[in-house]
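Minimal example, chain plus iron/sulfur cluster.
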Amino acid sequence: MHLWYKTLKKIIPSMIGQVVKSLFEKPNTRRYPMVAVSIPEDFRGKQVLDPERCISCGLCARDCPSGAIKMTEFGTKMLPVFLLDRCVFCYQCAESCPRNAITTSKVFEMASTKKEELVVTPQKKNE
Ligand code: SF4
Ligand code: SF4
């Protein structure tokens, strides 16, 4: 008898056993986006800037390791604008901010093929 035949005879029953077993096991993956995922409280998602707290010091832009913050004029103030296509979500910007004007959010669905949609402009947290 050929060696390959002997090998197949040995492994096929165990493979069938694995297949049958997997039919009755819980899936190891989540059916996202059909099923919502739970997001941890300290998740580093899309940035939220409170323009009223910001004093336009520019420390966030200075310390951002990715050059992802552009200080931009909004009325009478210079405020940070976050460029998500460069951001690595390290949150050094929030660490550097002396006014706690930058906070995290649980927003993680940011993928886009349009560059203009990857820009976070100042807004109030509850907007
Ligand atoms: S999270 Fe990090 S990379 Fe993104 S803007 Fe802030 S400092 Fe820059
Ligand atoms: S570090 Fe804080 S206060 Fe300074 S510009 Fe950035 S957000 Fe505004």
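Residues 49, 54-60, 80, 96-97, 99, 101-102 surround iron/sulfur cluster (ligand 2) (CB under 6 Å). Helices lie at 3-24, 59-63, 92-96.
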